[in-house]
Write a structure and sequence with these properties.
The structure holds 2 protein chains of 2 kinds.
Chain A (H helix, E strand, L loop, with lengths): L6 E5 L8 H12 L3 E4 L6 H10 L4 E6 L4 H14 L6 E6 L6 H7 L3 E4 L4 H11 L3
Chain B lengths: L4 E4 L5 E5 L5 E2 L5 H6 L4 H5 L22 E2 L2 E2 L4 H13 L4 E4 L3 H4 L23 H7 L9 E4 L5 H14 L9 E3 L3 H8 L6 H18 L6 E4 H6 L4 H20 L5 H4 L3 E6 L4 H22 L12 E5 L11 H15 L4 E4 L11 H16 L14 H23 L3 H6 L2 H18 L27 H16 L2 H16 L5 H9 L4 H12 L9
Parallel strand pairs in B: 4-12, 5-6, 6-7, 7-8, 9-10, 10-11, 11-12
Antiparallel strand pairs in B: 1-2, 2-3
Helix pairs in contact in B: 3-5, 6-20, 8-10, 10-12, 10-15, 12-13, 12-15, 13-14, 19-20, 19-21
The chains are: A alpha/beta, B alpha/beta.
């Protein structure tokens, strides 16, 4: 659907407060023409889902540096299914060891962007894979 | 990490160098440069130990006293942390720098659902005085000072530190603690905030006031330009924001009827060291001068000691890379050199594996040795402020000074730091800088060895500190045991008294000491504050 802006939720689950990466990505996504909603820090899975539904987003982007990306992603994907958000894709960025990328994909995460991924690559992926 | 832009001509010769603070470096500096900036030795520098302290706060510099080495450490349970500390002390470390896990930093007990998966992960889990008793066992608290990396609940940890010391026979007058106790920088850069700005700043003030009255050796606030820089700020913003944050705390204490000379001499700073070597040295020299001027001219201090910018200059995590991690050992050594050339009181380094996880004993020891060999092998103790008088360094110091003053004026214009942070102005500035920086790295304008230049090659092997939930299980078991065996009535009574003091706007510190001694938990004490203050809501900056 040309002309329709992609709406993306940039979310920081957990207690970790290092949001440099999340904010930098938010700026980059905005510059790429997307509408960015940033949750702020210390979010739980239910609070992220609530915002995602209220804001009617196309993409949920999780920023996770704490090492807890697997359990958090599992919970998010379960919640996405429960809410029936079939047209929402979920991507994950942050400190993600290479060996965990396939595990995250198995859980249902569409794209994984470990630290060092270029803006170009992440933006291209989102534009090509967004469902609407 | 390369933080200067190098503009080159077609023959790869450098045409221009632009430092992160926007200053252009010339190919040659001469005597006339000093004339152009109106350089005046007495006014701009003075001897070391003399106002405005550009050259250092102590006349004899490192000759009279080595810098303190204070590696950041702590993980898992208090028992594991105690073992690591004893190792570092036996290896010549002269102070502790306590790392707390995230639940503790956020005021949650280890058995709180919000703590799941985080207990003991990035620091030591502390639920009650019981944990401090284990962590500080057999450590001479009258000799070893402790930095406490805690902010939102710094008041609780300082009270607990007093409680543990007294339990082990040290009086509160004997002990030396340096809590970070800087909540404004958490809101800007590190994210471990709980309460809204105003009551959060009041708690900072409570710790300062109490320390000044009761704990003469404490350094009750460590103003952290460090984390603001790590979040993306440039070196000019790092210093400008740090000074303005310090001023916000000063104003809070002055409102309580104190004189500036009563307390500001106990302030210290935590500043970052990565980046262009010259820019860093100039930054620290300019910072010392501006802080002294700020305290003397703005606040009218009389005592010279009030004007000292004392600090831990170190870390440098923002410069380290995940790629080719062993390179970080060399990088950190250069960063330490910047700190040593700048007259740091205390130094610490991030370890080479910290882009992955918290350091192993091996990597922590390499960092400690890096600092020690700088002190004993290459001559950094020989003379004070060795770069002084350099046409380049003096010009750069003056230019940095001017830029920092400009940045500080912007904050005054929006009504001071509390307002600038409440509105999100600072957070936006910092995140935009971080974005620009990342763009520079991605398009190759900013050079990062092993990342966008000389990348690839063999993958380095990093031995990692493994996190297991065994520590969490042990911690939660101990907490349950504590709750079963402590005197509940005493807990309830001390918490009630704390609640009353909180609402009556009385200094909460003595009440927190009582709560700690009754083995009230960190979550219970924080709960009193949460009920009274509510929680901070982040301003939207996008």
């Amino acid at each position: 659907m040309p002309g329709k802006k992609i709406r993306i939720l940039v979310a920081k689950p957990g207690l970790d407060g290092h949001d440099r990466g999340a904010k930098v990505m938010a700026h980059a996504l905005k510059d790429a023409g997307m509408e960015v909603i940033y949750t702020g820090l210390h979010q739980t899975v239910p609070s992220i889902m609530k915002t995602a539904i209220e804001e009617d987003v196309d993409v949920i982007g999780l920023s996770i540096m704490s090492g807890a990306h697997i359990p958090i992603s599992k919970k998010i994907m379960e919640a996405v299914k429960e809410e029936g958000l079939d047209d929402v894709i979920v991507v994950v960025g942050g400190v993600i060891p290479t060996k965990d990328i396939s595990l995250l994909k198995d859980i249902g995460i569409s794209g994984v962007f470990p630290g060092g991924t270029s803006f170009e690559e992440s933006i291209k992926f989102i534009k090509e894979n967004v469902i609407n | 990490m390369g933080v200067a832009k190098y503009i080159k001509d077609e023959k790869d010769r450098i045409k221009d160098v632009v430092l992160q603070s926007g200053i252009h470096v010339k190919p040659l500096y001469k005597e006339e440069d000093l004339q152009n900036i109106g350089f005046d030795y007495a006014k701009d520098l003075g001897d070391s130990g003399q106002y405005p302290f550009t050259r250092g706060i102590h006349e004899q510099g490192f000759r009279s006293r080595e810098w303190t080495t204070r590696q950041y450490s702590g993980f898992g349970t208090p028992r594991e942390t105690n073992e690591r500390w004893k190792l570092l002390i036996s290896q010549g470390q002269t102070g502790l720098n306590v790392a707390f896990d995230l639940p503790t930093q956020m005021g949650y007990d280890s058995d709180d659902p919000m703590a799941e998966g985080e207990v003991g992960r990035v620091g030591m889990a502390v639920d009650s005085l019981k944990d401090f008793e284990i962590a500080f066992k057999d450590i001479a608290l009258n000799k070893i000072g402790s930095g406490l990396t805690i902010n939102a609940v710094a008041s609780i940890m300082v009270a607990m530190y007093q409680a543990v010391a007294e339990g082990y026979g040290f009086s509160k007058e004997q002990i030396s603690t340096t809590p970070q106790n800087d909540i404004l920088k958490e809101i800007v850069g590190r994210g471990a905030w709980i309460f809204p700005v105003e009551p959060a700043v009041r708690l900072i003030g409570d710790v300062i006031e109490y320390s000044v009255k009761e704990m003469p050796r404490a350094n009750p606030v460590s103003v952290c330009g460090y984390h603001i820089r790590e979040a993306g700020a440039n070196p000019v913003q790092e210093i400008a924001y740090a000074i303005q944050i310090a001023n916000a705390y000063i104003d809070n204490v002055l409102e309580r009827g104190y004189d500036i000379d009563d307390f500001v001499g106990r302030f210290s700073f935590n500043l970052d060291v990565f980046g262009n070597l010259w820019e860093q040295v100039a930054k620290f020299r300019a910072a010392r001068k501006l802080w002294a001027k700020n305290i003397k001219e703005k606040y009218g201090a009389k005592n010279q000691k009030s004007m000292f910018l004392r600090g831990i200059f170190g870390g440098g995590g923002g410069g380290l890379t995940k790629e080719q991690p062993e390179n970080n050992i060399a990088r950190s050594a250069y960063y330490a050199l910047a700190a040593a050339l700048s007259g740091a009181q205390t130094m610490a380094l991030c370890s080479y594996d910290e882009a992955y996880t918290i350091p192993t004993p091996h990597s922590a020891l390499i960092s400690l040795r890096t600092l020690q060999l700088l002190m004993d092998e290459v001559g950094l103790r020989d003379t004070v402020d060795p770069l002084a008088g350099s046409y380049f360094i003096e010009t750069l110091t003056k230019q940095m000074e001017e830029k920092i003053v400009e940045e500080m004026a912007k904050i005054d214009k929006v009504g001071g730091m509390v307002k600038a942070i409440s509105s999100g102005y600072i957070q936006k500035e910092v995140s935009l800088q971080a974005y620009e920086f990342e763009k520079g790295v991605q398009n190759g304008e900013l050079i990062k060895i092993g990342v966008n230049k000389y990348a690839g090659g063999e993958e380095g092997e990093v031995e990692l500190h493994e996190y297991t939930d065994e520590s969490a299980v042990e911690q939660i078991k101990n907490l349950k045991e504590l709750k079963r065996t402590r005197n509940d009535r005493e807990v309830v009574n001390t918490l009630k008294a704390l609640e009353k003091a909180t609402r009556d706007k009385v200094n909460v510190m003595p009440y927190l000491v009582d709560c700690c001694k009754a083995y009230a938990t960190v979550g219970e004490m924080t709960g009193v504050f949460r009920d009274a203050f509510g929680e901070f809501v982040e301003p939207n900056i996008f």
